[in-house]
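Good morning,

Attaching, inline, the backbone tokens for the sequence recovery test we're adding to the shared suite. The designed sequence is right after.
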């Protein structure tokens, strides 16, 4: 599907984040840790293919337009364009390497799933079912931070493509595709992403903590689900945090249990 044909997709009423015990500060500090692509476990994150189709006429148009807007040190010539044309593959590689670095300077990711019963998700992201899942209300998060956006991750074989820098800049749809498309091998995650401007994030008081955190209001959390292997000690710690944090005592509690007959996780009200 072409980028300008991306359908409008309704954001679910609740999106889930799988957590290990160290994420209990979601409740204690009223915040969610954001991520950069380089800290996620997919090496293809934010590394789109850079199109290598760049004709001499396209390059000429780009450099002359740029020069007319803001004069370059030297006026462009056809000789300059010829040199750039011979450098198209190398420039594409440099741009691909720099794409993620440039975007990370101003944008962070917060990852969610639209399902709360993924066996692999519980195993990979919730400490082998010993952790917990937090259900967030996207409507509240968007209301509190209207300049942030939720995007559904799409899955496929082909990597997203952005135009060569000698030809033009990526439009909004191409940028969104570049940061929300993943291999089909990740399809089980059923992921949604919240893209957040770094200006909305906060640092921890600990100067040794390099992370940026997304502050949340009490109404942003709908529920917590304790894993099937979640210890009584961790349940007690979370319950204490919920009771001691204003606005969190009304959060719904659930427990994940193993289906007695099927390979399936059941989420039951406590």
């Amino acid at each position: 599907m072409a980028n300008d044909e991306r359908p409008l997709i309704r954001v679910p009423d609740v999106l889930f984040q799988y957590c290990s015990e160290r994420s209990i500060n979601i409740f204690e500090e009223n915040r969610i840790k954001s991520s950069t692509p380089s800290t996620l476990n997919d090496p293809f994150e934010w590394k789109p293919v850079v199109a290598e189709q760049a004709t001499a006429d396209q390059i000429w148009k780009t450099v002359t337009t740029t020069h007319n807007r803001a004069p370059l040190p030297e006026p462009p010539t056809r000789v300059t364009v010829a040199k750039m044309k011979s450098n198209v593959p190398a420039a594409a590689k440099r741009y691909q390497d720099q794409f993620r670095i440039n975007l990370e300077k101003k944008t962070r990711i917060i990852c969610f799933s639209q399902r709360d019963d993924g066996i692999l998700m519980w195993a990979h992201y919730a400490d082998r079912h010993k952790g917990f899942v937090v259900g967030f209300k996207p409507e509240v998060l968007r209301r509190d931070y209207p300049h942030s956006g939720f995007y559904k991750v799409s899955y496929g074989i082909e990597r997203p493509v952005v135009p060569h820098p000698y030809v033009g800049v990526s439009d909004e749809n191409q940028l969104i595709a570049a940061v929300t498309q993943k291999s089909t091998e990740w399809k089980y995650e059923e992921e949604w992403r919240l893209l957040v401007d770094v200006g909305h994030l906060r640092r921890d008081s600990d100067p040794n903590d390099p992370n940026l955190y997304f502050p949340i209001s009490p109404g942003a959390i709908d529920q917590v689900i304790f894993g099937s292997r979640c210890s009584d000690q961790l349940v007690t710690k979370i319950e204490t945090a919920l009771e001691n944090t204003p606005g969190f005592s009304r959060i719904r509690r659930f427990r994940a249990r193993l289906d007695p007959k099927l390979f399936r996780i059941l989420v039951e009200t406590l």
